[in-house]
Design goal:
two-stranded antiparallel sheet; 3 helices; about 70 residues; about 50% helix; 2 strands; mainly alpha; single chain
Length: about 70
């Protein structure tokens, strides 16, 4: 099992949770992330916006993925 690394500048617990989920699952839709992590849509959109602004997450055809994964 490979160890997942969270970027040092991802400070919030929810940001880390979303980042790790995407690193593990690959591309995921907003609904998939919301259901898996039991976060409100507003909270999740805020976290994803922050992760996108820092370049850690990107929008894909299937939803969202970490920037380290192919789009």
């Amino acid at each position: 099992m490979s160890e997942r690394q969270i970027p040092n500048d991802v400070a919030s617990a929810r940001g880390k949770l979303v980042y790790l989920y995407l690193e593990t699952e690959g591309t995921a839709s907003l609904a998939d992330i919301q259901a898996a992590l039991d976060l409100s849509q507003l909270t999740l959109l805020t976290v994803l916006r922050s992760l996108r602004e820092t370049g850690h997450v990107q929008r894909t055809d299937g939803g969202f993925a970490t920037a380290s994964r192919p789009a």
